[in-house]
Design a protein that fits this description.
Strand content: 15-25%
Order of helices and strands: HHEEEEHHEH
CATH architecture: 2-Layer Sandwich
Strand order of the largest sheet: 3-2-1-4-5
CATH class: Alpha Beta
Structural class: alpha+beta
Number of strands: 5
Number of domains: 1
CATH superfamily: SCP2 sterol-binding domain
Radius of gyration: 14 Å
CATH topology: Nonspecific Lipid-transfer Protein, Chain A
Shape: globular
Length: about 130
Amino acid sequence: MPVYATADELYTVLKDVFDRVNEEPAHITTFTSSNLVIRMRFTGPEAEVLLDGRQPPLEVFFGNRPGDADLELSMAADLLHKIWLGQVKLKDAFFGGQIQTKGNVLRAMKLTDLFREAETAYPQVLAQQGRM
């Protein structure tokens, strides 16, 4: 059984995660000054998140958005859950083919600080929402 039954459940958690991440904008300047737009597509449930790093503050959009992204990442929502809980290493998921990419993969390095901050916030959000 998937961790998230619906896209709305996933969006609720991710919104809280990115709100927490945005509380410390200095921790994510690598991404917010990257001039990159990253699209994350999820399966199980089908969902989409757009991360806009063209200028601070970080803007996050939930649901299908028109336009191109500099880099697209596709993965199961359960995989993101495991990565942010430290059960799966991000690099193992990338190099193991669990995360599909479209665009220049080297640009994904600009996501490192943002993902690190999300990994810190994610378990806190799950606990606050009674999901852990």
